[in-house]
Amino acid sequence: MKILSPLISGLLLLLLTISPVTQADLYKWVDENGKIHYGDSPPDNAKLKKITGKVSSFSSVSVEPFVYDPELVTRRKNSKSVIMYSTSWCGYCKKAARHFRQKKIPFTEYDIEKSARAAREYKKLRGRGVPVILIGDRRMNGFDARTFDRIYYGKS
Q: Pairing between strand 56-57 and 129-130?
């Protein structure tokens, strides 16, 4: 039995490494109660929106310097201008937009799934998730109100 155990373990490992990887389509739908669902097997009667691309919502926030390059981003009017690259389904994007409106902070929002120009700029920024927020010469990946306010208002 000791001889078969390593043999069986080796065969199982081999089968796992050569097994094909399947890729499923991802869909978004709203149920009869208005609740939004995501999954690869929606109900038959659901009105669907197929989700494409490789964009994810950031689960944590990072801040990094952003050097202005006219080839990368639309020119900003002043150092406190705020630009947000977002998607319609991103909860953090909605939270950020709501925060900007509540604080009366002017901002420009570009949906990277609805605008080809926004998608190109996002790609040039090497975006990996949403939101990507540009605040003057700083870049924020994700959204946290305290971190944003500290950057925008210059608080330490």
A: parallel
Distance CA 61, CA 92 (A): 10
Nearest to 81 by CA among 129, 128, 139: 139
Residues facing residue 47 across a β-bridge: none
Residue labelled with tokens 């389904």: 89
Tokens of residue 153, six digits: 């208002």
Q: Whole-angstrom Cα distance, residue 38 to residue 49?
A: 10
Cα distances (angstroms) measured from residue 96 to each of 57, 87, 100, 120, 138: 13, 12, 6, 22, 16
Task: Give all domains of the chain, ordered by start, each with its CATH number.
Answer: 22-52 (no CATH), 56-153 (3.40.30.10)
Contact 84, 93 (CB under 8 A): yes
Residue-wise pLDDT tens digits, 34-83: 666 666 666 777 666 665 555 555 555 655 555 445 444 444 434 578 99
State which amino acid sits at residue 156: S
pLDDT level of residue 20 (50, 70, 90 thresholds) = very low
Residue type, 125: L
